[in-house]
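Tutorial, part two.
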Amino acid sequence: MRVQCSTKGGDNTNMDTLYPYLDLLIHIDLVLKSWITQHGDLSYLFIFLIIFVETGVVFFPVLPGDSLLFIIGTFCGLGLMAPDISLCVCLGAAILGDQLNFWIGQHLGQKIIQSNSPWISKDKLRQTHLFFERFGSLTLVIARFIPFARTFAPFCAGLGLMKPLQFSMFNILGATLWVIGVGSLGFFLGEVEWIKTHIQVVVWALILIPSALAIVSALKGSKSTGESPTKQ
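Running the prediction step on this input gives:
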C-alpha cells in the first residue's frame, strides 16, 4: 500500500511535504519502477543524486542507500536496468559523495559542529568516532554498510582522522564492496519468490538491522574506552 496524502488542517501541510520522502524511503521499489517507466534513462541521474547526497552531504544521512542498491540489482537481474550503466552510476556517486563529505569535514567540520546545528546528530557523530577508535581506516569500509555511519564516517575522517590519500584509497575500496556487494544480492536474490512477495520486509531489514548492529557495537566501544570520542 502506498503512502496517501491528506490536505486537511495546517499540520498536514508539513506532512504533505514529507510524504514524497517517506514514499521514497518505504516504497523505493515502486518509486524506482515508476521513474524508469516515466523517465527512462533519466532515472540514472535520479539514482546518482540520491546516492551522492546520502554519502556526500552530512545533513542528509537518512536516504535509502542499501535498499536502493538492492532494488537496482534486482531490476538489473530482471532486465529493467542496464547492469554496466548502473554499476558506473552507483560507484561514481558513492566515491564522489564521500570525497565531497571528506572535504566538508576538512574545511567546514569544526564550524558545523560548533554551530550546534539540529541537522547534525551528536549521538551518530559520537558513534562514528567510536568506530574509528576501534577499527581505524577500515571504518570507511564497514560504515558503507551501516546507515548514518555511511554519511558521518567521511565527515569525521575529514576532521583530521585520516590523510587525503589514505582516505581516497579506503573510499574507493569501501564504495566498490558496498555497490557490488549489495547490488549483487539484489541481482541474484531478486528472483526468489519469497523476496519478491515480501520486498518491503527486505527493504526495512536493510535499514534497521545494520543500524541496530551499529548502535550495539558503538555502545560496547563506549564502555570499553570510557572516553568521549568528540574530543579532538
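Residues 27-223 form one domain. In part three we will examine how such features are distributed along the chain.
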